[in-house]
């Protein structure tokens, strides 16, 4: 059981270890790798959202001087690939392979149909024009509800809804989720107030600034190295080798620095293409997406339609809740329909509920994870319905949630009973926060909502090596997208009893460290940190053994305190403590280098809850929304590096605000994305927002040595409903469709 402890290193905020290299331009990102004789790859993408491919002829491109490789779906191994892609919500490996390169059909505008590699980027772009593709254009399926109709055009004629018994006919519904408890009819009968509404959320982009990029260098034996911008180089290696029919051992994947991911870089797009073309050409191949390609051909979040009904008694008790949510999967199955179902009621103790969710194919890009995938959309709908219920009852929205708040021992809607959690503590902190106690500014509305994410464990490995001077080197396999190297160093320093400045952390390639699952699911500080801690504990055990050998004592007579070996209580030994540096200096005489490894499948990830509130004001003449203040409160378990935790909370809030107010994929009637760039797809900038105020609540996770829960995903969940509730209260009219852009709000005001 992790308890509140006074730590020496954990809880401090040292300068980020990657900071100097990044601000000086030394850090190498995916597109910064350059090799001798390197050539450049480009992708030919479909101009249609839905069409059969009758033929692809790359001979014209191959005939051009300076073109070294040209490939299409015909170059990939035949047969169906079995198994699931690694990472967050990757889907089936066969689907991911067909997303990387279309085979018999293109399923969205921008779907890859061929690729070339040439001596220059410009020549590669010219070579794409020489590729001849013949299409049979089909009607696109673009509306998620219409796609569920049994008579709808099929995106994939081989898609049958995954049910215990295979349906007789294919459909666009890939998967169905269902969670239920109690008696809905009795629950709604007991309610004094019932709210029932339909809500919509659009597809949204993760907003990472660095486009997807990689360099592959494969030799004559088919072996080589791939450098890529990725959240999980082990999963990228597995997917690439499987798609190309290669031995995984023949490929080394190196994770470069990453310019943002948020779940969007857990999936392969370019790596198999670059690898294949490097092998065919005998040269290294660099591939970098344009911003337009990132928007058109990589995974956004799911758009959703949600129908929610909630019953509440006068005292605020939720008597029943019913939800129906359709998630757009894009062209292939893999929408976060089950995480959405598991999240929607997770903060509450509800006796009677039903939630049904659907994974629905449409002719749009295959969706990818985006920070707590599925939870923002699902909880937006329910949190807005709860806010309306609070208004009808003239009840404070935090008080309503306190009446129903889950706590230790509450059975989660998805099954297990919660261990100690910090949801009530977050609500109580919000209720007494100075920003909440202030009056709502004139003409503004105050929105309240809560967020939740499970957090996960999964597999991690770490190695800890002690240098000759006692400094510490950590090698682990989790790409750092949120400050994990600093967290690893802090946990190692705390465990070993040394200063943070004496510890270094390195993200190893797939040949330099043991397997690590993707950096996602808010798992890295929890799981990889647990591996680092266990490796440090093994180092301590080894150091105690060496000290015992030096002093002529039994191992159990030696303790480890403040970074040094000392005789245990009651041991009569006239010896001086041996520091880690002293033990390392004499390691050759006591058994050789001091090193330890740990690998694990981490169990006991702690659920994380948040409470957000904000004051927003709508200009009734223009429809523009001003965010006057925003406050984020979250249970971190234990904040290893508080500044990083605050940064995660603030970043998630900004992304959620953008999704709520402006961000959306806009498709025309032919399935062509009309705003494929940051000029027309508007993300918030600093001048749009106030300072995001934060408060970290710490209710330790009993399953982690330092109480860590993970904080990266929960922050994006609540802001959608916070903004919708604030705008609805400001206008005195319930707004149910996101984003709440000026044209949409003007229509609501005038309507």
Helices and strands in order, then pairings?
Layout: H1 19-24, E1 39-45, E2 51-57, H2 59-62, E3 67-72, H3 93-100, E4 105-106, E5 112-118, H4 121-129, E6 132-137, H5 144-147, E7 173-181, H6 184-189, E8 193-201, E9 213-218, E10 224-228, H7 233-244, E11 251-255, H8 271-281, E12 285-288, H9 291-297, E13 304-312, E14 318-330, H10 337-343, E15 353-361, H11 375-392, H12 397-404, H13 423-431, H14 434-437, E16 444-453, E17 458-466, E18 472-476, H15 484-496, E19 503-507, H16 524-551, E20 558-561, E21 564-567, E22 578-579, H17 580-585, E23 595-602, E24 608-618, E25 625-635, H18 642-661, E26 692-697, H19 719-731, H20 742-750
Parallel strand pairs: 1-12, 10-11, 14-15, 18-19, 25-26
Antiparallel strand pairs: 1-5, 2-4, 2-6, 3-5, 7-15, 8-13, 9-10, 9-12, 13-14, 16-24, 17-18, 17-23, 20-21, 21-22, 24-25
Helix pairs in contact: 7-8, 10-11, 11-19, 12-13, 15-16, 18-19
If you had to describe this structure to a student in words, what would you say it looks like?
The longest helix is centred in the last third of the chain and has 28 residues, at 524-551. 56% of the residues are buried. The N and C termini lie far apart (56 Å). The protein has 3 domains: 19-26 and 458-599, 2-Layer Sandwich (Aldehyde Oxidoreductase, domain 4), CATH 3.30.365.10; 33-138 and 209-297, Alpha-Beta Complex (Aldehyde Oxidoreductase, domain 3); 304-455 and 606-750, Aldehyde oxidase/xanthine dehydrogenase, molybdopterin binding domain (Aldehyde Oxidoreductase, domain 4, 2-Layer Sandwich), CATH 3.30.365.10. The model has no long low-confidence stretch (mean pLDDT 97). It is globular. With 751 residues, the chain is of the alpha+beta class. It has a 7-stranded mixed beta sheet, sandwiched between helices. Strands 7-15-14-13-8 form a 5-stranded mixed beta sheet. It is built from 20 helices and 26 strands. Helix 7 crosses helix 8, helix 15 packs parallel to helix 16 (524-551) and helix 18 crosses helix 19 (719-731).
